[in-house]
Every structure is written in C-alpha cells, then in structure tokens.
Design brief:
The structure is a homodimer. By secondary structure, the first copy, chain A, is an alpha/beta fold. Chain A folds into two domains: 9-117 and 286-302, ATPase, nucleotide binding domain (Nucleotidyltransferase, domain 5, 2-Layer Sandwich), CATH 3.30.420; 128-280, 2-Layer Sandwich (Nucleotidyltransferase, domain 5), CATH 3.30.420. Chain A is 34% helix and 19% strand. Chain A has helices at 42-58, 98-106, 115-126, 187-191, 193-200, 213-232, 248-261, 268-272, 287-297, 299-302, and strands spanning 9-15, 19-25, 31-38, 62-69, 84-85, 96-97, 110-114, 135-140, 144-150, 153-154, 237-240, 278-279. The radius of gyration of chain A is 19 Å and the shape is globular. At the A-B interface, β10 and α6 of A face β10 and α6 of B.
Chain lengths: 311, 311
C-alpha cells in the first residue's frame, strides 16, 4: 500500500457475521487499501482490525473509524450501550462493546451503525442515493436487512430497522416452511441465500436464470418492497447483497412491484421509470466498506454526546 | 366564542373526505373554538374555512394556519405543487391548490401535510409522542392511513406514506375479497370501517365486542403493525380513528403484534410492555384539529422556501 504519509485517512470496518473487511480511504471516498479476514471470536477479530489501523493512528493520520456492523446493535449515541453488538444470535458476540474497543485501542473517534445504514450512508455520499434524503438500502444475501435515511437522517428509533423480517404473503401453493429461527416464513426465512439453498438443495448461484425459483424470489422481495414504499415513501430503493448479483432479478422485481402498487402511488418514477427507482448499489462490492468510511467522515458531528467515544 | 382580542391564535384545518373541522387554539394547544361542516366541492368548502378564519386574520390575531388533509397530497415545500391535493379519487378535488387558496385569502402563512402526519405532530407536541422522535400515528376509520416522524422529522419522501395500503397475509379461510378499488385486499381493503360494513352487512359499531370479527380485524392490523416496527423501529405506535374507538381491539392487537414479532425485537417495551407501546391518541377526538394547529405552530420554519406561501 502506498499512501502519502502527510495525508489524512479515514478507516472503515464492514463487520459481517462471516467476514470483516477493513479499509482506508481519503476524504473523497477513494479506497486506498483493504483487508479481509474471517469473523471468529470478538477478541481475535477486533484485535486484527485494531492491528490493521494502528500504524495510521500512531502516526496521527487516522482521523476516524466508521463501523457498519451485523446486529442487532445499539446505534443510539445517547444510550449507555451505544456501540455494542447486543442480542445477536452469533456465539460469543452478545453484549460486545465493539465501538468502544476500537475507539480506546486506537484513541480515535468511532461512528457506529448497522451494516445497511452504513452502506446507505456510502451510497448517499458517493453513489446511487446522492441528492436524495429519503431512500432504502436493502441487502439480500446470507441474511436480509435494510437501512437508509428518512429526511436526511439514518433510520433508527426504538432500536433499528429489521426489514428482513417483514411478514409477506405466500405465493399460492408454495409450501416451503422458511428457515428463520424466529419467524419461519418471514422474508429472510423465505428468500435469503441460505433459504434458497434449503429450498432447492444447492447453492442459488448454480440455479439457471430462467428457473421458476427466481419468480418466487421476485414475488417475496417485491411484496416487501411495495410495503416499504407504502411505509416510508423512499425516493429510491437500492438492492445489494449476494442474491442480487443475479442481475435478471431486477427486471422481475420491478415488474412485480409495479403490479403490487397497482397504480396507487402517483409518481412518474414509480409509474413509468421503475428501472431508475429500484437499482443496484453504485458502489458495487465496495458499498459495505466505503459505507463504513462514509460513517467515519461524519464521525465528528455524530459522536459528540456519546458515552466513551472521543469527539 | 370568547377570545382575548389581544392574544394571538393559530388555526387548524382537519380536512377529511367527509367533513372539515376548523379550530382556533392558543400556543399551548388549548382549543378555543371549533366548527364542523361537510366536505362538498372545493370552492364551497374552502370558502367556508376562509370565512371562519377571516375575522382573526383581519384583526391581525391569526399567526398561521395548519392543514392536515386527506390525500394524496403534495407535502414537499420545495415542489411547485406544494400544498395541493393531487390525484385523489374524491370527485372535484384533484389538483386543488388547498394551501395556496387559504394562504392567499387570509394572507397568512400556511403549513400543510397529511391528516395523519398532522395528528402525529399534535401528539408529538402535546400528547402520546412527547419526547419521542420516531413514532407512528395510524388512523383506522373510513380509510386507513399512517404518518408520524423519523428522527424528529415528519415522514415524507417520494410522496408521503400510504400505510393503509400495505399487503398483509390473509387469515386462513378468510375469503372476503376486500374493497380497495386499487388493491382489493390490502389492509384498508380488508379492515377499514367500510370494509367491515361490507363484510358483516351492518355498521361495525353494532357488532358485539366478543364477535369473531374483532379477531379478524386484530389479525390484519397486527400484521401491518409488526411490519411497521420492522421497517421504521418506532418508539411508540398511536392508533386512532373510528374503528379504534372499539377499545377491546387494543388488547387483541397488542397480543398478536407480540406473536408476530416472535421475540425478535429486543426491547423491553416490545417484549414486556406492549400496553405502553401501542396506545390510543392522548388528544383523543381532537388529535386531528389540534394536529393541524401544531403544524401551524411550526409554520414559520417549515415554509420559508415554499412556492406561494408567505414566510
């Protein structure tokens, strides 16, 4: 890696349940370096992240670190457990003070939010949500999750959105029970990557593009998306994640979202230009780590009131 | 009506598809006077509203007017059609410059939003959403609609929420087709007041409290509410409107929302205190008109950029 030693850098951690991606970028979102490693236990995994950023904090070049994390998390800066991964089913990670550990070890401000809110922040700053203040970022992969902004502020409230767990009506005749341990046949239970694998007995990546499976996937995702439109009235919906790498899904989903909405939402974008309304991430595979960097860029203002994170 | 002639007053218009309620209040939300009249054509109806407020504008006592309107509307102050009722199915009201007509006739600032966002604003200022920044206000009556705030700002985006039209899974064996002209069996099509009347052949007010009808109503409303929780993570959900006057519905809905969520949302409020999470409007029957007054109280800051509404 070559970085001009006088230049400031911002760090990003895309913290997934399977792997961590750590990166460094300049203020324009140019990714200067990136490293990936598996998510094991918190001690080991956070130590690797800290080790990666330490040379930049020691030389005073690291301005802040942003973390887009798997969850559930506590994203509320006013809360005593702000920055924690909370009740996650992932073994060993419950009640982990993720943001605090990074901030103390590197003596740097840390911004912390869900993985999808982080990806949304990146798309807002540099990608498909530029100039929009109300939008959704949905990831469809190992799990299904959603984030984004309402009126220019990242979504959170009682806790944070859990859009993957919405209840959706079944395709007539579909008797797949779903695999969500909490709900069975919620959206994630029906069409996450592992749900598709359980459904067809092999990885969805091996299923042909014209297989009826994709009609089923489009049914459930489009019903959920229509409901997101009714609840939040987003100006755009960005669909990322491993399952959405299957590009032909976009056309199927757009068509069905139009059918579900039934002409009710009177907006040219929804009525006539769904290809400009439901889109892939402009930052592509880097939406996660650049989203975390985007959080870091906002860290100064975000973290003033927080518990244990320096301003 | 007796109002100290030196005191300033704020006007509110609760504009429903069936009736208008106009009221005057002081800055503390004390309702000083109120008038109701049927919603006929726009010329006649707006003239009656203007006539009601004119003595207060002429004497310089009327600071601003807030309007909580049936829709669809354009609630975006940056839009050229801000303040219009737009594509409503209500005959004669399409493309009506509601806020503009009131502002010009009374020469006063006007704040304009959906009926449910207005009611939410009122509950935020004086009622069940005080000290909360992310919450929902849902009305279940002639229609079903939802509004509220995310991170302290009233919900809007591409247009505004249309929460009544969400897709919900059917109760097993329920073959009622639904009455929504756009979607048939969306939430509003299944359990709005008119839907219940179509379902049982008489007004829902005449149906006994232990009738199985209320189990069906609770099923659909609770499924929708669980989805709202997953999408927005509200800190509280306020349920108003004619159908919700049936108080026993609250217990049925709370129980089923808990079942739908399945213990997934880790919050004491949702896990153990649903009676403090899903509540009636604190402003009761006055939530609509006081909500409109609450909009008026914020009119100075809201309307700076707007098209034809004086600052």
């Amino acid at each position: 890696m070559e970085i001009d030693r006088n230049n400031q850098v911002w760090g990003g951690i895309e913290a997934g349940g399977t792997k961590f991606v750590c990166g460094l970028a300049d203020a324009s979102g140019r990714l200067l370096d990136e490293v990936r490693f598996p998510t094991t236990n918190p001690e080991q995994t956070l130590a690797r992240a800290i080790e990666y950023f330490r040379p930049y904090s020691e030389t005073g070049r690291l301005v802040a670190v942003g973390i887009g994390s798997f969850g559930p998390i506590d994203p509320n800066p006013d809360s005593p457990t702000y920055g924690f991964i909370t009740s996650t089913p992932k073994p060993g990670w419950q009640q982990t003070d993720f943001a605090g550990a990074i901030a103390r070890a590197l003596d740097t401000p840390v911004a912390f939010d869900t993985d999808t809110n982080a990806a949304g922040e990146g798309e807002h700053r540099w990608g498909a949500a530029r100039d929009l203040d109300t939008f959704l970022y949905l990831t469809v992969g190992t799990g299904i999750g959603g984030g984004g902004m309402a009126r220019g502020r990242r979504l959170r409230g009682l806790v944070h959105p859990e859009m993957g767990h919405v209840i959706v009506p079944r395709v007539a005749g579909d008797d797949f029970p779903g695999i969500c341990p909490f709900h069975g046949d919620c959206l994630e239970g029906m069409v996450s990557g592992p749900a598709l694998k359980a459904r067809v007995g092999r990885s969805a990546e091996e299923v042909a593009g014209d297989d009826p499976l994709w009609q089923i996937v489009a049914h459930y995702l489009s019903a959920a998306i229509a409901n997101y439109v009714y609840v939040l009235s987003p100006q755009r919906i960005i669909l990322g994640g491993g399952v959405m790498r299957r590009q032909e899904l976009f056309a199927l989903i757009r068509e069905r979202v139009g059918q579900w909405l039934g002409g009710y939402v009177q907006s040219d974008l929804v009525l006539n230009r769904l290809d400009d309304y439901i889109v892939p991430p402009a930052l592509g595979e880097r939406a996660g780590v650049l989203g975390a960097v985007a959080l870091a860029l906002g860290a100064g203002t975000e973290l003033r009131q927080s518990r244990n994170i320096r301003p």
